[in-house]
Fold these 2 entries.
Entry 1:
Amino acid sequence: MEEFIMTARGLRNNNDEWRDIPGYEGLYQVSSVGNVKSLPKYRSKTDRILKGYIDKDGYVKVRLCPNQKERKSYFVHRLVAIAFINNDECLPEVDHLNTIKNDNRVENLKWCNHKMNVNNKITLKKKSESRKGVKFSPETIRKMSDAKKGKKLHPDVLAQLVERNKKPVAMLDYEGNTIAVFKSIKEAGAITGVNPKRISDVCLNKRNRAGGYKWKRA
């Protein structure tokens, strides 16, 4: 878990606009470029920029203490959006417009639903480019196909895979709220672009998230 002093992509900005974090008024504030600071409290007499950390999905998080015993982790991009961006439509997700997950400047964020999030133009372009793999000659393709002939899955294994992929699966946000429900893991992967194997691993508790989301059987 990488820790660092939170600044906008590594730059400290003296012109930050600071606002209270809802629910933590008088304790913490978040800035327009994604810094979070604690206000004077307890024995501290000065403001202090907090250290954040990058989670395994590449998002910046910070720990806030509502009291001297409890500590909770929050995504910085959501704190910025909640404090600075109007959300009259009650959209559930926050999109990084340039797809850089640690660039939490307010102008790089917008509220969105999941469909809007996965249809980010830059994200779609990156996915398209990543799918441009090595091109094989017809002869190489024929040889690869011939090599696989005769190799079949055991009927029990095949049945298990089919049954596993037929069950509905739910996509959840970071707070555990259901975003969408799909008929199967295969459909979820096709619509969201997330690797179905990784979705399955989350459902089996082999990993925490896939594509930045939680998944469970519906």
Note: The chain has two domains: 2-126, 153-217.
Entry 2:
Amino acid sequence: MKLRSLLFVPADSDRKFARADTCGADALILDLEDSVAPGRKAFAREAVKNLLGAATRNWRFLVRINPLGTGLTLEDLVAVVRPGLDGILIPKVNGIQDVELISHYVDVLEVAVGIPAGHVKLLVLATETPAAMFGFAGYVTPSSSPSSRLVAMTWGAEDLSAALGALTNKEPNGDWTFPYQVARAQCVFAANAAGVLALETLYGDYKDQAGLAESCRIARRDGFVGRLAIHPDQVAIINACFTPSDADLAHARRVVAAFASQPDVGTVGIDGKMYDRPHLVAAKRALASVGETIDE
């Protein structure tokens, strides 16, 4: 599942959906949680149901449900697990046990509505509670490995900041303070260890395109492969950043070809520089991100 850009859209806003529909995002996240007032939850569910039955689209249809413990989760799932849904974003997870519970609910609902088993994927907001910070090992421990539905992990600072009672989560220069640097790092480590996509959190100032581009550059440098967005104007920058350039792809092909021509060596030389097996892994990942098949 290619997920460079994932744009949040309030599920109860036809106007915002109309603009988001054509913005070029890889996925739209129809939000039933934070952006929908309590009195509008039922209306938002019906809106999502209607959209799911609409014409074909060129983006992935995801829904952020309300978290476990709110009394709203099952109502959300019953409303949205139906043909047309590609995935569910689970907020405020405390650990793998929450992911497994949602997965079991989806197992039953897929059968009930005639969706092929396993079609609906799961994405998790993995750092929104203090308890979640102690549960990352569960995503990679064989005895409690996540459902095969799990395809991506992302992180967030605002809910965690509120739960901690922190006065701020940013330094004066805009950098994350230390607790949130830890949360971000834990997310990218756990996602890669679990073999799922690591997605960077949102960039709040949607008018600051230069700042967004630099933040995306840093995210890609650190191992994230996509990013959440809160405004359609952010999508093009995010897509460009998380798409390898022609030069990147050409170099990756040369690295793969060099190792293929010398399968028994641990390092190869290209243009006077040495490359070892980790560079081969990175090259294959870059090519796979654009759908290129690599013959082993």
Note: DSSP finds ten helices and ten strands in the chain.
